[in-house]
Amino acid sequence: MMTPSPDAASILVVDDIGTNVRLLELLLSSEGYRVHGVTSGMAALDAVATEPPDLILLDVMMPCMNGFEVTQQLKSNPATRHIPVILVTAMDEEDTCVKGLAVGAEDFVSKPINKQALLLRVRNLLRLKEYSDFLANHNQRLEKEVNIRTEELRNSYADTIYLLTRAAERRDVGKGSHIKRIGYYCQMLAVALGLDEHFQEQIFFASALHDIGKIGIPDAILLKQGPLSAEEWQIMYTHTTIGAQILAGSNTSYIAMAKDIAQSHHEHWDGSGYPKGLLGDAIPLAARIMSLCDVYDTLRSSRPYKKSIDHAKALKIIFEGDERTHPSYFDPTVLAAFTSVSDQFAAIYDREATVNAAA
C-alpha cells in the first residue's frame, strides 16, 4: 500500500459499518490519499471541525444522524460549505438523488461501490476543489494588495493635506489648534448626519484646508490687530477663491472635497454668503457642515479683532443670531444635527485648549 504524502489530499470516510470504512480507507490510501474514517454523523462533524478534509465520502443510511442531515449541516456552515461531499447510498431512487442535491451534495456513488467510478468522482471533485481554493486564495491576495495600496494612497493624501496645512499655519498664527478642532467637529457632524465612513474620513482631513487661501492675503490684513476696514474685508473674502485655485485640478476625492470646502464654507443657506451667493443645496454638503463648525470655533476663539466667548454664548448666537451671524445662514438639517452633538463640540474645544495650554 502506498504511503500518503503529507501534501496529499485528505478524505474523510463516514459509514456506520466499520468494515465499509476500512475497505474505503484501504482503497483510497492505495491511491496516495490521506484517509480518516469515522462511524457516525456526529463523529464526522467533530472530525471536520478539528481538521477539515479536502473531500468527504458520506454514507446516507446511518442511525441518529443520516447523510442528508450531516450534509445539510456542513453546507449551512460558511467554514465547511466548500468541502465537496460524495453521498454513498444503496438506494437508486431518483428522489434520493434529488434530496441529496437539495441539501448540497456534489455527487453520488451507489453500493456496491465500483472502484473506478469512485476514483474518477474523487479525482474530479478534488480537482474542482483545488481550483476553487486557488481562486479563493488568489482573491484574498488581491484584496490584501488592494487594501495595502488603498492605505498607501490614504496616507499620501493625508501627508499632502498635512504639508499644505503647515504652509497655511505659518501665515496665520494661532490657527493650528483651530484646524485640529475643525477636523473633529466636521467628522462628528458627519456621523450625526448619518453619512458613510468614507465621507467622515474625507471631511476630517479635507476640512483642514478650508483657509488655505489665506496664503494669498497680505500680512497687513491677515495679521492686523483690530477690526478690518470694509476694503480690507473685501480682500479677506478672496481667500475662498484663492483656496479653490490652489486646490483645483486634483483628481483625488480628498482634495476635491477640500476645494469645495475652501471655496464655499462662507456661503449661506439663505444665499447671502460669498463668494458666489450660492443658495441652499447648491452649496456642497461638506461646505455646509464646515460653515457651522467654523462659526462655532471662531466664536469660541480669540482673534486680533475679537475676544473668545463661552459655549453657551456661542450656541445663543448660532441659534438666535447677532450682528454678524444668523441661523438662516445654516442648512437646517445640519443645524438640527449640531443640536444633538453640541455638548461634544464643547468637549472637543476644552480638550484641545487643555492640550495646547500644557504644550
Q: Give me the CATH superfamily of the largest domain.
A: Hypothetical protein af1432
Q: What distance separates the N and C termini?
A: 77 Å
Cα Rg: 34 Å
Query: CATH topology of the largest domain, anyone?
Result: Hypothetical protein af1432
Tell me the number of structural domains: 2
Which spans have pLDDT < 50 for at least 5 consecutive residues?
none
Biggest sheet: strands, sense, closure?
Answer: 5 strands, parallel
Please name the CATH architecture of the largest domain. Orthogonal Bundle
Strand order of the largest sheet: 2-1-3-4-5
Q: Please give the number of β-strands.
A: 5
What does this structure look like?
The radius of gyration is 34 Å and the shape is elongated. The protein is of the alpha/beta class and 359 residues long. It folds into two domains: 132 residues, 3-Layer(aba) Sandwich (Rossmann fold); 187 residues, Hypothetical protein af1432. Strand 1, helix 1 and strand 2 form a beta-alpha-beta unit. The termini are far apart. Strands 2-1-3-4-5 form a five-stranded parallel β-sheet, sandwiched between helices. It contains 14 helices and five strands.
Write the layout of secondary structure elements.
Blueprint: E1 10-14, H1 18-29, E2 34-38, H2 41-50, E3 55-59, H3 67-75, E4 85-89, H4 94-103, E5 107-110, H5 115-171, H6 176-192, H7 197-206, H8 219-222, H9 230-237, H10 239-247, H11 253-264, H12 285-300, H13 311-320, H14 332-358
Parallel strand pairs: 1-2, 1-3, 3-4, 4-5
